[in-house]
């Protein structure tokens, strides 16, 4: 029953500040991009992880001077569009071999803004269609799914790659993940580090995020069983959701708690079926 | 006050009215309180003994051993220590409380005198402060801020459970069993029956322990049964109180849900460990 520490309080305050700076909705989107920076003679190839009318998050193979970004070209439906932009942040997330850079668009003209909105909403609709009525978000209505999609980021993961580590709760490892395609293996550990069992998750299933909805560390090790595409709701995005759509944040928390309960139930059923052994459940 | 929307009114308007009604119904603080009380009803020759479960300046929730015609309530006598407050009153609703064999009745005060309102404010305020301090200093909700603890204290109700009685049963949701409970006094055991029929004790909780609430925060029945090991006093945040928090104080509702979720995750982990290792209760 530990009271919130100063460090936690500062992190929470920092999250709230960052969330409040978030400029509008961001939809998980993988769009080819070129980053034009004062530090390079030519453009740097990149891919978006999310896209909104206010900015984007792009992945690149290596780091670069993000503060020198002057513009970004996005390969949107109907042709490429080059937008004035400024780099805001850069980091290498744990469990990810790409460098992520946050970019804010600046002084967009009406045409560019309309195209961005169309592209972002189009990607949002695609994700919503993929998740609606499926898996752990089955109880969500269209409005809720669309609302949720406005706080998402795409996360491609290669087979065998670690997504969430046991006991981690740091930045980028406390996100909530939804399996959009592929399959993920969760290994559940005991408090003394022993493996209690494994569970496979496929499309529409939720995992991670306990640090956000239950203020506790993960007790799972999540790895990609196949090449996967995940929809990620980062701590920042969840804070944005909490601030702008508190009802939806509660609903997402409900879904995650239910998913955790189902996971525990499957492990217990698996253990009961294999006397003296670990639980191993497959499918779904 | 809002005007009632006709049945054919747009969904949003009807939803908004319902939300406003939930918020307005708890416009004044309503705190857990256990005071002796007497009820005078047109249908009874003498007064009926009862105890309060919560108290506000506008009304009171009372517990009696048996049901009575709540619409006939005309007056109550509230015993606050040495002082007795007699108030004109009207019964509003009545329901059963399964866990303690009590009948709960909601009573509104009718045109209370200003000196009575003042006295009730003082009692409610003092009780709220004490409860907020308990929540903030001595419970599994201690990571909430003082303001949040204060907000929670104002939507609580008292529940007394005798030793050996069930607070709620695993996988069942009856009205009143879906609340969030804080153990104020006594001990409560959480026991889960797993799929092979074994009963595993997940946790034993003393004062400050957080119990139940999964139906409210996740829309599913509780994953374990809760038994009172000894005579216990619980602080209850009911479904209607949680609905009020969601609408009027969403951040408090989120933090409360987070705490309930944290307890649930911890207990599920213990349960899985015990089930997998075959440790029976």
Helices and strands in order, then pairings?
The complex is a heterodimer of chains A (about 280) and B (about 280).
Chain A (H helix, E strand, L loop, with lengths): L5 H16 L5 E2 L3 E6 L6 E9 L2 E6 L8 E8 L2 E13 L7 E7 L4 H22 L10 H8 L3 E5 L4 E3 L11 E6 L2 E6 L5 E7 L4 E3 L1 H4 L6 E5 L3 E6 L1 H10 L1 H28 L5 E3 L3
Parallel strand pairs in A: 12-16
Antiparallel strand pairs in A: 1-3, 2-3, 2-5, 3-4, 4-7, 5-6, 6-7, 8-15, 9-14, 10-13, 10-15, 11-12, 11-14
Helix pairs in contact in A: 1-5, 2-3, 5-6
Chain B lengths: L10 H15 L5 E2 L3 E6 L6 E8 L3 E6 L8 E8 L2 E15 L4 E8 L4 H25 L7 H8 L3 E5 L4 E3 L11 E6 L2 E6 L5 E7 L4 E3 L1 H5 L6 E4 L3 E6 L1 H10 L1 H28 L4
Antiparallel strand pairs in B: 1-3, 2-3, 2-5, 3-4, 4-7, 5-6, 6-7, 8-15, 9-14, 10-13, 10-15, 11-12, 11-14
Helix pairs in contact in B: 2-3, 5-6
Shape of chain A: globular
Mean pLDDT over the residues of chain B: 88
What is the overall shape of chain B?
A: globular
Strand content of chain B: 25-35%
Class by SSE composition of chain A: alpha+beta
If you average the pLDDT of chain A, what whole number results?
A: 84
How many strand segments of chain A? 16
Terminal residue distance of chain A: 35 Å
Number of strands of chain B: 15
Quick tags:
heterodimer; A: 284 residues; 6-stranded antiparallel β-barrel; 5-stranded mixed sheet; 6 helices; 33% strand; globular; B: 281 residues; alpha+beta
Question: Can you tell me about this structure?
Answer:
The complex is a heterodimer of chains A (284) and B (281). With 284 residues, chain A is α+β, with helices and mostly antiparallel strands. In chain A, 31% of the residues lie in helices and 33% in strands. In chain A, the strands form 3 sheets. A 6-stranded antiparallel barrel of chain A has the order 2-3-4-7-6-5. In chain A, helix 1 crosses helix 5, helix 2 crosses helix 3 and helix 5 packs across helix 6. Chain B has 281 residues and is α+β, with helices and mostly antiparallel strands. Helices cover 32% and strands 33% of the residues of chain B. Chain B is built from 6 helices and 15 strands. Chain B has helices at residues 11-25, 114-138, 146-153, 214-218, 239-248, 250-277; strands at residues 31-32, 36-41, 48-55, 59-64, 73-80, 83-97, 102-109, 157-161, 166-168, 180-185, 188-193, 199-205, 210-212, 225-228, 232-237. In chain B, the strands form 3 sheets. Chain B has a 6-stranded antiparallel β-barrel with strand order 2-3-4-7-6-5. In chain B, strand 5 and strand 6 form a beta hairpin. In chain B, helix 2 (114-138) packs across helix 3 (146-153). Chain B is globular and about 65 Å long. The model of chain B has no long low-confidence stretch (mean pLDDT 88). Classes of the chains: A alpha+beta (284), B alpha+beta (281). Chain A binds chain B through residues 1-4, 139, 188, 190-191, 196-197, 210, 213-216, 219, 242, 246-247, 249-250, 253-258, 260-261, 264-265, 267-269, 271-272, 276, 278-279, and chain B through 139-140, 142-143, 194-196, 208, 214, 217-220, 223, 246, 250-251, 253-254, 257-259, 261-262, 264-266, 268-269, 271-273, 275-276, 278.
